[in-house]
Design brief:
By secondary structure, this protein is mostly beta strands. It has one domain (5-53). Helix content is 0%, strand content 59%. The protein has a five-stranded antiparallel sheet with strand order 4-3-2-1-5, with no helix packed on it. The protein is globular.
Length: 58
């Protein structure tokens, strides 16, 4: 779970965007993700767990 790459919906000031990020921490209700943007800057954000799509496990 930690370190998994997930898709998550985040909200920038006026627009919701689906991003790909790495799981840094999680609880029953929220997931902290780390996002690296095209310019190389890295951001961390907490999002509700319902906004995250986890990879399928085989």
């Amino acid at each position: 779970m930690l370190g998994d790459e997930v898709n998550a919906w985040v909200r920038y000031p006026e627009v919701p965007v689906q991003v790909r990020g790495k799981v840094v921490a999680f609880s029953d209700y929220a997931v902290q993700i780390e996002i690296t943007q095209r310019d190389g800057t890295t951001h961390r954000a907490w999002v509700w767990s319902g906004a995250v799509t986890w990879p399928t496990r085989s």
